[in-house]
Amino acid sequence: MTPVTLNVNGSAQALELEPDMPLLYALRNHLGLNGAKYGCGLGQCGACTVIVDDKPVFSCVTPCAGLEGKKVRTVESLGTAERPGPLQKAFIDKQAAQCGYCIAGMLMRAQSLLESNPHPDEQTIREYMAGNLCRCGTHLRIIEAISLVARQHGSAL
Amino acid sequence: MLMWRPAIASIERLRAFDSAQLQRGARVVETGDCAVCHTRPGGQYMAGGLALVTPFGTLYSTNITPDPQTGIGQWSLPAFERAMREGVSRDGHFLYPAFPYVHYRRMTAGDIADAYAYLMSGPAVDSPAMQNRMNFPMNIRPLVSFWNLLFLHAKPLTPVAQQSEAWNRGRYLVEGPGHCAGCHSPLNLIGAEKSGKSLAGGAVDGWEAPSLLGMASRANAWSSDQLVSYLRAEVVDGHGTAAGPMRPVSLSLARLPVSDAEAIAEYLLSLQTKAAITENQPGAASVEPSDQASGAQLFASACAGCHAPAAPMREIDGRPALDRTSALQAPSARNFLKTVLEGVPATPGVPGPIMPPFAASLDNVQLTALASYLRQQARPDQPWTGLSSTIEAIRQEKK
Fold it and tell me: What pTM value is reported for the model?
């Protein structure tokens, strides 16, 4: 076991981890942040997507070692069931979830897009979101939800 | 020498071509990889707009759909053939040699006419040319005439009687429409392929375009079957799969009859190196000390899901062991590092390997340790040198 300090959703977390542990396992098993999901474990589906220093990463293939000093953000940072953030609210308004398994990853990838490009057009959204898959087929509603936030004026996020 | 060339009269767009010619033309256009540069990501087929970053500035590929105003709809066949052989636009201005007319000029008149017919028969797209951003003095197009005087010499290929028909076809594809030397040859200071060094290896978009000489006899030698599969975008035991700028080229070849890839393989495997292979010699001073244990841990957490011996992709899908890939066997770490940082993106509509990008998941220290660890497995006798500076350089290039 190796001591690692992770900065997650704004707070420092001192953990003792196996040295080869991917970030997803630390988030779920050690910090109880169960938003990010295990989908494929191969960085091919996006269910585990979180934001590290403003960039979306597949947490299932991102080693914890080396994350010290970086800011990790998960879907839990966007809002709560009672007070959903703007992007979460748009997903609800557009009913963008079927089973919901991919949605935490979808939200975090979309969040990183809107932070770097607040008003992307639909083509940009499609290209940016291509790395995240939804097996239920709600992609069109997901794109609508992101477009809704992208069309809002000012810095909605 | 002329710094100015006459315009060739515009014509009404031609539309009547017979279907056999159009089919031949589709094949020629695929062998020439026209769409690889003349279609930008997300853009319309052949409508141009792809940025080509060169040491001399940024160029944008042009619209070669038959749109009369913004494409080549007003071009006659003689105008098209002049562009293909001499690099001169219909209106007389010089085209930049990023357009590989130095190679296309070796194409047969029949192939050029077929390609013309195919392009003219496609949908016209109204898409004006993007403004090039070339640096002085390369922004002065007439200067290209000096470049042409020095470098535009290639003669049509005459078949070599002692060689097979396939070899001659392969040579034609490699030296003519396929323009392999465009990437796989070193360039001189003014962007021309160095004389006598054709296919000896070059660079494109930050990737290493390896030497195509002596492929049958080098340490990690290619068999004909391996090369044919690789050229057709398959995953090949002992080498891996085409990535980076070679990916679209191999996807293009996969759409052509297998006989074309076989012909190219026969020709390429017959090419010998002219000089001894100059692989990077390990310089003790520049091999960075690295922590093999941390490299192994990083492999376990980031790579093993797909690349460990027992991973499903290895067992079920036949992916080769990493230490047996060209990227890890190569003298330069560049293609390995580029692949890890950028991944192998999916091609819509085409089954094939994909790999996620790790640029945001691994920092430079981690990537150095990982590369050093995997190189140790692949070539313990020859560690890569200067890894961290190469990684830093690649990350800067991306911006």
Answer: 0.90
The pLDDT-based confidence of B282 (bands split at 50, 70, 90) is very low
- The pairing of beta strand B207-209 with beta strand B202-204: antiparallel
Q: Which of B110, B121, B114 has its CA nearest to residue B45?
A: B121
Q: What is the rounded average pLDDT for all residues in chain A?
A: 95
Partner residue facing B297 (CB), from A19, A55, A131: A19
Number of A/B CB contacts below 8 angstroms equals 63
* Contact between chains at A56 and B354 (C-beta distance less than 8 A): no
Which structure tokens are listed for A104? 């935490």
More confident position, B304 or B137 = B304
CA gap B181, B35 in Å, rounded: 18
Query: In the predicted model, what is the mean pLDDT of residues B304-310?
Result: 93
Interchain CB distance below 8 Å, A21 and B301: yes
Mutual angle of helices B224-231 and B246-254, in 10-degree steps: 100
pLDDT digits (tens, 9 = 90+) for B6-30: 999 999 999 889 999 999 999 999 9
Contacts of A58 in chain B (CB under 8 A): 356, 361
When CB atoms are compared, the residue of A43, A64, A127 closest to B356 is A43
**Confidence class for position B285, pLDDT limits 50, 70, 90:** very low
Q: Which residues of B297-321 are buried (b: 16+ CB within 10 A; e: fewer)?
A: bbbbbbbbbbbeeebebbeeeebbb
Listed residue (A9, A7, A22, A28) closest to A108, CA to CA: A9
Query: Per residue in A75-98, pLDDT tens?
Result: 999 999 999 999 999 999 999 999
Q: How far, in Å, CA of B65 to CA of B71, rounded?
A: 5
Q: Quick count: other Cβ atoms within 10 Å of Cβ B166?
A: 16
d(CA B209, CA A60): 32
How close, in Å, is residue A41 to chain B by CA atoms?
A: 7
Strands (DSSP E) found in chain B: 51-54, 57-60, 133-134, 202-204, 207-209
**Mutate which of B292, B298, B301 to test chain A, going by most A C-beta atoms within 10 A?**
B301
Q: Quick one: tokens of A98? A: 């079927």
Least confident of B94-108, B229-243, B308-322: B308-322
Determine the Cα–Cα distance for residues B258 and B260; give it in Å rounded to an integer.
Answer: 5
**Cα separation, A120 vs A100, whole angstroms:** 24
Distance CA B180, CA B203 (A): 12
Q: Which two tokens stand for residue B74?
A: 């007003």
Query: Is residue B225 classed as helix, strand or coil in its secondary structure?
Result: helix
ipTM of the complex: 0.89
Residue of B294, B298, B356 with shortest CB distance to A44: B356
